[in-house]
Hints:
23% strand; 5-stranded mixed β-sheet; globular; 38% helix
Amino acid sequence: MKKIESLNNLKEVLQPNENVWLLLYKKDSSQSDCAFENYQKAAPKADKIVLCYADVNEVRDIHPEYKITSVPSLLNFEKGTLKNVVKGCHQPEQFNAIFEKVAFVLAGNGEGKPQKNVTVYTTPTCTWCNTIKRHLQENGIRYREVDVSKDQKAAEEMVRRSGQQGVPQTDINGEIIVGFDRNRINTLLGIN
Length: 192
């Protein structure tokens, strides 16, 4: 695991590496300390990816650059581009599942089924939002998270498409699921 000292330092790490994970955390915050400890435990099992971390108490130029407003947040970069953000504290097994899915996708030979396009619309105070994100992570499903409390256009688009204001809402290849409907999500994503 590599400690990141600044945005420039991060960019130096991103340049030569295809897949980089960066945990942004705030030392001495219980959620962040939990995430950091479990991230460290998961790290030895991760290969083919670069694992980094940065304490937002010390490094103040990364989170504004990527519009990260809460920590702990795990950022995934592919070929230098931010592809995914996973928020909160997770168990080492969950971190490993996330890393293994990425390693599998990178090592894939094209024979597997393509990953469906999954977007989860959330708000920071929504407990069901955390439940669905955890479910997707545990099953190795990559997704994009949109915080509708901070993105008015996305919120309007979400309501226009579903007719609903509540979150979570999950868009799986254009099909909208309102709430955490485990059976429907599992069916659409092929989760057993």
